[in-house]
Write a structure and sequence with these properties.
Distance between the termini: 38 Å
Strand order of the largest sheet: 1-2-6-3-7-18-8-17
Radius of gyration: 23 Å
Shape: elongated
Structural class: alpha+beta
Number of strands: 18
Number of domains: 2
Helix content: 25-40%
Largest sheet: 8 strands, mixed
Order of helices and strands: HHEEEEEHEHEEEEEHEEEHEEHEHEH
């Protein structure tokens, strides 16, 4: 099976975060014929890691790609590249796996003379759970990387352009769920109950006005209300339950801690003022992905033959690769998917096959740079 055939198979069988069992099996079968020195399956769930070279002879460089696809609504089914069922690779992770498979073929043909390369095919990036599960797996200690690198295709940039940034590359984010509990009443006598309607509306206003409270940091920091729920369609009953769903987003983990504490305090205050109970939970938690200066310098150095595009500010979207860069020196960078490409997550998005060869070559140059004798 060629890398293009692998990608075609991955497109036919997209799977959602945490359920990438067939995807992992396809990758494992492709990699088995290359005979890596190390194979770990079921890492932190469905993730897989493959090692080429010998860690006792030099540093270990870890390269990561993602296994998961995105959910597709029924209205989108049948629209390319919808795939099969209710999932589709609309973020280009199938292309990222094809890039990594191409790197694997090169490493199998010419193993590293010094050090080791780990190729990590990671589960559940889209939910933010995958990287956390990998680093929590006791077997992650066997990998012990000295450097970590990953790329993401970026529509809107020239095809093959390399997008780099030192410091924060992509923002921290988390989904905040606030549930208010009051007491129902007859709609003719609402004063006999305890409605959460006012508290819900005030909390939405608090989220909408959050950004100015954190302007002192000089960084991007805001909340987006993504949903709200109040009572039921029952015209004879004043409601007892309400919920607000918001995404908090900012450039640093420290600011995220401050934002979360502020919003929790605001929800508690509103609940207390209205005599309500309140529950707060978080979902889809992503740390900021912070690139090290040395890793970015390496990318700039080896990407010289390609068009380099500095990112002037962090990307607003989130990536769970920050779980790795918080532990190990490394960097996430972008590679342009074309200025005419549909946006990521759009039903019409297609990863361009033309990116596979140059992106794999770039990854191999990063490996060579980091494993060279005397590399800093």
């Amino acid at each position: 099976m060629s890398t293009l055939e692998l990608r075609a198979a991955l497109q036919r069988h997209p799977e959602l975060s945490g359920a990438e069992h067939e995807t992992a099996a396809l990758v494992a079968a492709f990699m088995a014929r290359l005979r890596p020195e190390l194979t770990l399956t079921g890492l932190g769930g469905a993730s897989l890691a493959f090692g080429f070279g010998d860690a006792s002879t030099g540093p270990t460089v870890l390269l990561r790609c993602e296994l998961d696809a995105l959910p597709v609504t029924e209205a989108e089914l049948g629209r390319p590249p919808a795939g099969i069922g209710t999932a589709a690779h609309r973020c280009g992770h199938d292309g990222h796996m094809a890039i990594m498979a191409t790197v694997a073929e090169a490493l199998a043909a010419v193993p590293p003379r010094r050090g080791r390369v780990i190729l990590l095919f990671q589960s559940a990036e889209e939910t933010g759970a995958g990287a956390a599960a990998v680093v929590a797996d006791p077997r992650f200690a066997q990998l012990h990387p000295d450097w970590v690198f990953a790329l993401h295709n970026l529509p809107g940039y020239p095809l093959g352009a390399v997008v780099v940034r030192a410091g924060t590359f992509s923002c921290a984010s988390r989904g905040m769920v606030v549930e208010f509990a009051g007491r129902a009443a007859h709609a003719a006598q609402p004063e006999t109950g305890c409605s959460p309607a006012a508290a819900m509306c005030q909390l939405i206003a608090e989220f909408d006005g959050l950004a100015p409270r954190f302007q002192d940091t000089g960084e991007l920091a805001f909340a987006t209300v993504v949903g709200a729920r109040l009572g039921e369609r029952a015209f004879g009953t004043a409601p007892a339950q309400a919920a607000v769903f918001a995404t908090l987003r900012c450039e640093s983990n420290d600011t995220m801690a401050r934002m979360s504490a502020h919003c929790e305090a605001a929800a508690a205050r509103l609940a207390s003022d209205s005599g309500l109970g309140v529950k707060i939970a978080y979902e889809d938690i992503f740390d900021a992905t912070c690139n090290s200066d040395q890793a970015v310098a390496c990318i700039r150095r080896v990407a010289a033959p390609l068009k380099l595009v500095p990112a002037p500010e962090p990307f607003r979207w989130s990536e769970d690769f920050g779980r790795f860069t918080a532990r190990v020196q490394g960097a996430l960078f972008g590679i342009g998917a074309g200025t005419a490409s549909a946006p990521l997550h759009d039903a019409g998005y297609r990863f361009p096959d033309e990116l596979i060869a140059p992106a794999a070559a770039l990854m191999l140059r990063i490996v060579a740079d980091r494993l060279a004798p005397g590399a800093e």
